[in-house]
């Protein structure tokens, strides 16, 4: 465990929270198809808006050990999923696997996250990203079929219930492809260029695979909207952000807080909201706070006290002055984004209490934003829309390769395949890099560097299982100088051997389940 004041690196409980970063990485590079590595996970909070998972941990019922130990370190909007799990309400989990090689212990993190959510009542989806593998990696269909089978067998062997969950491959799911076609109408090349670095030399099929992945992420909500979580590594965050944007763009209505009949940008709205709270209507002639009064208050306040850019200030002043004597009065706004005439009329009828109807929006004065969002979604679904909820995501740390650096499928010595012979797995661990000192004497004196040790990560991510005390004991003994690397690696190597033997035995047992599952194991394109 790293020391210092970074909450990512040390838990309040004193239990080991592994770093899990890629040794030698020097920057944040979120490339879904590259060799992404993250050397400082704090940058993900600062630069990409990923939230800390420890802030939502207490809201999660019986959290998985990957959550408790900080291996799952971040999230986007996970609270609705956690609430649904607590309350026994509908929720879903989905993640996909690009079958370009053998499944390894890094992939097991995602398998475990899907299975954990399924066991707590979420609808679970596991998909084979074969269109992506073919278009982005140039894999042949025969190669894809072979690897896809291996991924699915390991998923089932680890506990995925195919009778309660859904397995599919992108290339044979017509509903998915139809959804991708519709989502494609809301995405454009400039956007893909900005997000993924596509250029004039990018294959169209590669671009299509991106839209297909957006459809994958929203697919669990195709029948009905529900909180949905996508467990991924942080390199996949660009996909999640785009999917959240597309989910919003498909919505019939945008719901927001408003203060007058005109539309305000978020920064403008925050400024008006602050002044609404500060100004006393009783100080004005007819005991009513009006747009002109807010404009006057803004003009009388120094810019530095307002805390907004000059262009924002000019824009909001123009809107307020044009509205003149219109009262400033909080309301919830339903903005018509792409609703049919029938849906817009149905929304008007569905809003109880005082309301004002305009050409492109409806203002409700007796509805809170949360209630309004649910009403808008209900009206949308009843009138043929999707009503998608923005998908949530959770992010796990990258495992360090056994040889140091990032774990890579293309470097066999850096990872342990779930298909490795148990003896080969034993040998790989025995040959692994450690966070030990130069000599045993120095190790006993100064202690080992567990947070820089790929072998300790094996304990924290896999070998300790649900036993937090075991993981903590390994850590404490290492940094305290009691545990030497040779004995530590021997114990880890034996546990890996046992895990692989047990897992492969279980894989053989579930072959019948895979044959009976509702998924095509051989591509018709092969």
UniProtKB/TrEMBL annotation:
Q: What is its EC number?
A: 6.1.1.2
- Domain of life, per UniProt, equals Archaea
What would be an example GO MF term here? ATP binding
| 'KMSKS' region (motif): residue ranges | 406-410
Q: Spell out the reaction equation it catalyses.
A: tRNA(Trp) + L-tryptophan + ATP = L-tryptophyl-tRNA(Trp) + AMP + diphosphate + H(+)
Provide the GO biological process annotations.
Answer: tryptophanyl-tRNA aminoacylation
Mind telling me what this protein is named? Tryptophan--tRNA ligase
Question: Highest lineage ranks of the organism?
Answer: Archaea, Methanobacteriati, Methanobacteriota, Stenosarchaea group, Halobacteria
């Amino acid at each position: 465990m790293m020391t210092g004041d970074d909450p990512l690196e040390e838990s309040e409980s004193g239990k080991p929270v592994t770093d899990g970063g890629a040794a030698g990485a020097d920057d944040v590079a979120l490339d879904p198809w590259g060799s992404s590595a993250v050397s400082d996970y704090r940058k993900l909070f600062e630069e990409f808006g990923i939230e800390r998972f420890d802030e939502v941990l207490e809201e999660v019922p019986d959290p998985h050990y990957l959550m408790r130990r900080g291996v799952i370190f971040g999230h986007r909007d996970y609270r609705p999923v956690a609430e649904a799990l607590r309350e026994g309400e509908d929720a879903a989990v989905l993640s996909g696997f690009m079958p370009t090689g053998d499944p390894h212990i890094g992939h097991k993190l995602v398998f475990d996250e899907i299975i954990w959510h399924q066991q707590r009542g979420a609808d679970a989806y596991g998909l084979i990203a074969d269109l992506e593998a073919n278009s982005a990696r140039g894999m042949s269909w025969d190669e894809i079929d072979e690897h896809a089978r291996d991924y699915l067998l390991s998923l089932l062997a680890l506990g995925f219930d195919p009778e309660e969950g859904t397995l599919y491959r992108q290339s044979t799911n017509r509903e998915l492809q139809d959804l991708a076609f519709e989502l494609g109408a809301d995405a454009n090349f400039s956007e893909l260029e900005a997000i993924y670095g596509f250029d004039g030399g990018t294959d169209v099929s590669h671009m299509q695979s991106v839209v297909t992945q957006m459809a994958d992420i929203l697919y669990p909500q195709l029948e009905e909207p529900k909180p949905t979580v996508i467990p991924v590594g942080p390199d996949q965050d660009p996909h999640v952000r785009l999917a959240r944007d597309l989910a919003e763009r498909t919505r019939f209505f945008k719901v927001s807080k408003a203060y007058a009949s005109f539309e305000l940008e978020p920064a403008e709205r925050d400024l008006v909201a602050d002044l609404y709270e500060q100004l006393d209507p009783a100080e004005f002639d007819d005991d009513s706070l009006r747009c002109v009064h807010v404009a006057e208050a803004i003009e009388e306040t120094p810019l530095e006290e307002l805390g907004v850019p000059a262009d924002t200030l000019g824009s909001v002043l123009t809107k307020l002055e044009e509205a003149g004597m219109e009262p400033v009065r909080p309301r919830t706004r339903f903005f018509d984004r792409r609703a049919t005439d029938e849906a817009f009329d149905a929304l008007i009828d569905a809003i109880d209490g005082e309301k004002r109807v305009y050409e492109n929006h409806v203002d409700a004065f007796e509805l809170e934003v949360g209630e309004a969002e649910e009403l808008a979604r209900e009206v949308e679904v009843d009138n043929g829309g999707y009503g998608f909820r923005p998908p949530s995501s959770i992010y796990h740390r990258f495992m360090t390769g056994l040889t140091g650096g990032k774990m890579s499928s293309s470097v066999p010595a850096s990872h342990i395949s779930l298909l490795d012979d148990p003896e080969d797995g034993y040998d790989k661990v025995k040959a692994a890099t450690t966070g030990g000192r130069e000599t045993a004497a120095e190790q006993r004196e100064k202690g080992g560097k567990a947070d820089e040790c790929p072998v300790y990560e094996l304990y924290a991510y896999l070998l300790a299982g649900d036993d937090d005390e075991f993981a903590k004991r390994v850590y404490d003994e290492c940094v305290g100088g009691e545990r030497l690397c040779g004995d530590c690696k021997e114990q880890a190597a034996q546990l890996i051997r046992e895990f692989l033997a047990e897992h492969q035995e279980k894989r053989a047992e579930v072959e019948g389940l895979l044959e009976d599952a509702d998924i095509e194991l051989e591509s018709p394109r092969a």
